[in-house]
Every structure is written in C-alpha cells, then in structure tokens.
Amino acid sequence: MSGLVLQKVVKEFGVFRAVNDVNLDVPHGTFVCMLGPSGCGKTTLLRMIAGLDLPTSGAIRLDGEDITRVPTHKRNLGMVFQSLALFPHLTVGENIAYPLRIRKAPKEEQKKRVDELLSMIHLAGYADRPVSKLSGGQRQRVAIARALAISPKLFLLDEPLSALDAKLREAMQVELRQLQQKLGITTIVVTHDQREAMTMADTVVVMNGGEIRQAASPIEIYRRPADSFVADFIGQTNLIEAEADSQGRATVFGQPVAGLPLPPGAARATISIRPEDVHLTAPGAGALNGKVTFVRDLGGTIETFVDVAGRQIVAVSTPRARPEVAVGQPVGVALTPDVCVVLGK
Ligand code: ATP
C-alpha cells in the first residue's frame, strides 16, 4: 500500500510504556495531525517514524517497504522541529541547498531547486540574505523549504509553529496546508493545538496515555467523538449522564428528555452535546429547567452557563440568536436529540 502504515507499534522506556499498540494508516498524499495532551506519546511516535527511536515491538512501513530498522538518513524524510536548527552563519539559499550539497547535487540543479522553493514559500529574491536577518515566520518557511529540498517521501514536523505569535501562527497553518496540497506530500505534524490540527489535517489522530483514541477527519472528530476523552479534548462540550427511568425512557438529571438516544437495554450512558447545540428557551418550554449562573459575552459569541439540578450546562450562541437572559433568571434548556452523541466510555 502506498503511504505510511504503523502496525502494533509499542515503545517502552524501562517499565514505562510511552506508546501502546498503535495501528495507523496514512494514505499517500494526506496530511495527519497527531494531537493530545503533554506526555501522551505523540513525539515518541513521530521519532519512531523518523527513525530517531526504535520501537520496542511492531512495524513501520513506507510505500510497502518495512522501514522499522532503516536508519533516518536512508528513509527519504523531510523534518522540521520546533527549534528549526537553521545554520545562522549561512544565507537563506545556502540553508535550503544544504541537503542537496551534502548529496553532491550539481550546482545548477541546487540553484534551480532553491529558486523553485523560494518562490513556493513566498521568499523569491531572498537567497542571499543571512537567515539571522529574517523574521520568525520567514525562518519558519526557510526551515520548511530546506526540509523539502530533497523532495522527501514523507514530511514530519514536531510543533513547528509553536514559537510563533498567535496571528502569524494561524497564517502559517494555512500556508503549510496549501503548500502540502500543492506538493501532494504525505505529511505528519505533531501539535498540542487543536485549532491548528482542525485547520490543517485530513486526519486528526487524538492520542492519550500512549494510545490512539480516535483517528478521523476533523469534522468527524468534532461531530462524532469516539469517547468522553475525545469529546472533552476537542472543542467545548457538555458531558451529560443520561439514565433510563423505570419505563426505559431517557432522563437527564431526573428530568425526562424525549427522543434522547440511550443504547437499547442500557441503564445509563454519557452523552456529549456541543454548546452550540444547546438552546435556551422560556422556562418550562425546554426538556430541562435551570437557572442562569454566568454569562460570558465575547462579542461574536455569547456563552451562557446554566445550573440544572446542581450540574452545569453551557450554551453558545451568537448575540442575535440568543434570547435576553440575565444571571439568576430561570430558563428552559432544549437538547436536540439527533445532535446528542452517545459516547463509548
Ligand atoms: P509533549 O507535548 O509534552 O511534547 P508528547 O505527547 O510529545 O508530549 P512524549 O515526548 O512522546 O510526549 O513522551 C511520552 C512519555 O514518554 C512521557 O511520559 C515522557 O516522559 C516519556 N519519555 C519520552 N522520552 C523518554 C525517554 N527517552 N526516556 C524515558 N521516558 C521518556
């Protein structure tokens, strides 16, 4: 199969298992973001893909070839790490040409490739500038161009944008995605920033405790989270315990909610409902009744916190779509059953 395949990959450091039985298919030309909290094993997984660490067990295949034990320099990879590791005493052009120079590519070919890459990263005409005179975003682009100079089979990036300020970072996310699409290169990015992952990825891989909890498209992850960890980690959500009453009808906090999807025969289930799917109504007109405890007006959106039987539910709406409510006011809370997701764990 064309692309990257991880089969039952395990990494142990002494008795500690940092990566536990990871299976993943990354089809050729796709963009994958590995996302998860600090210490979940994403860098360790990337390092094994890069050949910087050896798996304790399992296999890594690239375009059908078993590369588990192939040294890094023979894997045909482009890599960018947070530190960038540009050579400060060299010019932009010399930095980008470096991997070609050590492969002894002819001078003409080096120059042609550097010019091509410079125009791709919107830095045409910068070849002779010292990298020390570039801005953070420009350095970032040079590091990306250098990694792509050898036309690698696989492009690996570890937190590549985390040193940039928020605005530049968002702009670079779009640039990186557009560049990847143009080149059609299989790309894996490690990030702890879910917005970054949602912006760039075809597939978001959510990890926790060394395991993949879900691997799916950004919208699938958001709309159909596999478990409560994913639901809570990606975006905001309300995790609600639903219980069956004596007649098997779903209830939430002791109040019946018609149409709520409890699995057949289940006594209880955790349900995720996104704040934008919670609608406030007049008291008594929603499935649940509660009292407003806090309103966060962010200008473009308003978050309303409602206490329902001692539990908190958050509703998000745009200012125009929200009924006027004030702290302390009783409200109804409508849950639309078909957007409630019953979670696995
Ligand atoms: P972060 O976002 O903080 O970089 P991460 O998800 O990339 O986190 P890893 O760096 O892969 O996490 O680390 C996973 C776990 O393995 C951590 O608990 C870490 O302490 C441990 N670990 C990583 N490298 C080693 C090592 N060389 N020796 C021992 N333990 C290690």
Automatic annotation (TrEMBL):
SUPFAM superfamilies: MOP-like (SSF50331), P-loop containing nucleoside triphosphate hydrolases (SSF52540). Residues 4-234 form the ABC transporter domain. Belongs to the ABC transporter superfamily. SMART domains: AAA. Pfam families: ABC_tran, TOBE_2. This is Spermidine/putrescine transport system ATP-binding protein. The keyword Transmembrane helix does not apply. It comes from the Bacteria. The keyword Nucleotide-binding applies. InterPro entries: AAA+_ATPase, ABC_SmlMolc_Importer, ABC_transporter-like_ATP-bd, ABC_transporter-like_CS, Mo/tungstate-bd_C_term_dom, NA-bd_OB-fold, P-loop_NTPase, Transp-assoc_OB_typ2.
